[in-house]
């Protein structure tokens, strides 16, 4: 997986971007088990998108934006998992 991330970030010209593979896989797993399986890639896409927007607009650096977005996502997933079905 690390080799793939290195290859992909190189070809996307974002080699300096730190990718926490384990954290992304954890949140993807939480989304898949809490919502539905296809929520995993959609959730990670949205996290990346909002992180990029925050960084590009100057609202936050990459690490702060991702941390905040991940926390919001985890809170929503926790609320969903506790909601009556």
TrEMBL record:
Residues 1-76 form the DUF6457 domain. It comes from the Bacteria. This is Molybdopterin-guanine dinucleotide biosynthesis protein.
């Amino acid at each position: 997986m690390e080799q793939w991330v290195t290859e992909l970030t190189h070809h996307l010209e974002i080699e300096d971007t730190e990718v926490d593979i384990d954290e992304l896989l954890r949140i993807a797993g939480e989304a898949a088990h809490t919502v539905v399986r296809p929520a995993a890639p959609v959730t990670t896409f949205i996290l990346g998108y909002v992180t990029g927007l925050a960084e590009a607009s100057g609202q936050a650096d990459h690490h702060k934006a991702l941390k905040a977005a991940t926390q919001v996502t985890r809170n929503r997933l926790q609320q969903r998992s506790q909601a009556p079905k």
